[in-house]
Specification:
By secondary structure, the protein is mainly alpha-helical. It has one domain: Rhodopsin 7-helix transmembrane proteins (Rhopdopsin 7-helix transmembrane proteins), CATH 1.20.1070. It is about 70% helix and about 0% strand. Bound molecules: zinc ion. Zinc ion (ZN) binds next to helix 4 and helix 10. Its main location: membrane.
Length: about 350
């Protein structure tokens, strides 16, 4: 019995490996086509197994998948490395690092899942990317957690301690819903309005999670003898983050040179790499604040209950949102099937 199951899977693996043929953009639904990417598309309507095996094949999603698989390993290594110094179960200074780490693992895992199986069908495509947008929401919530509890200006922390985390979760949901609606509303080739809607919903969250830091920049700017270089660990994060957003929104370089970056070098792949570097730098920035600036900051007031509740609540809200959007997705899929 056991041997026959293994034999069946080996047969399936052989079949799938034989199906390495990829398609041209003109052979797939308009929905799957990316600007400037002319080939390397996987076939649609295949088994789940086909898409899982495609991780190890060469197609135009391989680099997207592997950049975030490597990111997952790097994030785990980072979280593990802090365990030498902090006791995660009893040390409030370490809880934001752990909360941020869980949110980052969530965004990278959801991204890997979306890029792996989204080509299976138009319905799965939309559902996968809604989960991917929930991942972006998770990332924003994680940044909120780590900035608020590890790097906030003390006054800001005191004034906003009651409202910040509920607002953080709400804005994470706004990002998810904004990105999902933008994808459902516009057809490929997407107008810039779609990216604008995505960037605006994300921008609101970014501004709110940056406010606890802005107070430190303002204070340092006004205070004589304070050098902005004392905040360079945060400035570096902003610089890499903005450059990643450029690649996220521009489809550069493939839009300028169509067909030249079908497999490697697409703007979205560069965005994945820069997002990973940003995340690692955010871990480092919080660690510097916790260890070197703890005298001027409040780094031991993290509320584990609020952190855990935010992470669980957002998962619950995301699932409800995906289920609530199903009728709109079904209607949209019927329109997309006509656009081959
Ligand atoms: Zn992606």
């Amino acid at each position: 019995m056991g041997l026959s199951v293994v034999a069946r899977y080996l047969r399936q693996l052989k079949d799938v490996l034989h199906q390495q043929r990829t398609l041209l953009a003109s052979q797939v639904y308009l929905l799957y086509r990316e600007p400037g990417v002319l080939s390397g598309y996987r076939m649609y309507g295949k088994s789940w197994f086909y898409y899982i095996v495609s991780i190890f094949q060469i197609n135009n999603e391989t680099v997207n998948i592997w950049t975030h698989l490597v990111a997952i390993m790097l994030f785990l290594k980072k979280i593990w490395s802090y365990a030498d110094e902090f006791h995660y179960y009893s040390d409030p200074e370490s809880w934001p690092l752990l909360g941020f780490g869980i949110c980052c693992l969530a965004y990278a895992t959801l991204s890997v899942s979306a890029h792996t199986v989204h080509s299976k069908s138009p319905f799965i495509h939309y559902t996968c990317f809604q989960a991917d947008y929930a991942g972006i929401g998770y990332y924003g919530i994680g940044i909120g957690i780590i900035v608020f509890y590890s790097s906030s200006h003390p006054d800001w922390f005191r004034y906003f301690s009651r409202v910040f985390m509920p607002l953080n979760v709400f804005l994470g949901w706004v990002v998810m819903l904004g990105c999902s609606m933008a994808k459902l509303r516009y057809k490929r080739p997407y107008p810039f309005r779609r990216k604008l809607l995505q960037l605006c919903s994300g921008g609101m969250h970014a501004i709110v999670v940056a406010l606890p830091l802005q107070a430190r920049y303002t204070e340092c700017f006004r205070k004589t003898g304070c050098s902005l270089s004392t905040l360079s660990h945060h400035t570096e994060v902003f610089l890499v983050l903005f450059s990643s957003l450029f690649f996220f929104s521009s489809h550069f370089p493939e839009k300028i040179w169509p067909g030249k970056f079908d497999l490697v070098g697409q703007g979205h792949q560069i965005f994945h790499v820069l997002a990973t570097i940003t995340t690692l730098k955010q871990f480092d920035a919080a660690y510097i604040d916790i260890t070197k600036h703890r005298n001027t900051l409040i780094t031991d007031k993290a509320d584990m209950f609020q952190i855990v509740l935010s992470i669980i609540l957002f998962a619950f809200i995301s699932v409800i949102t995906i289920l609530a959007l199903r009728p709109i997705v079904k209607k949209r899929v019927l329109q997309d099937m006509k656009d081959l």
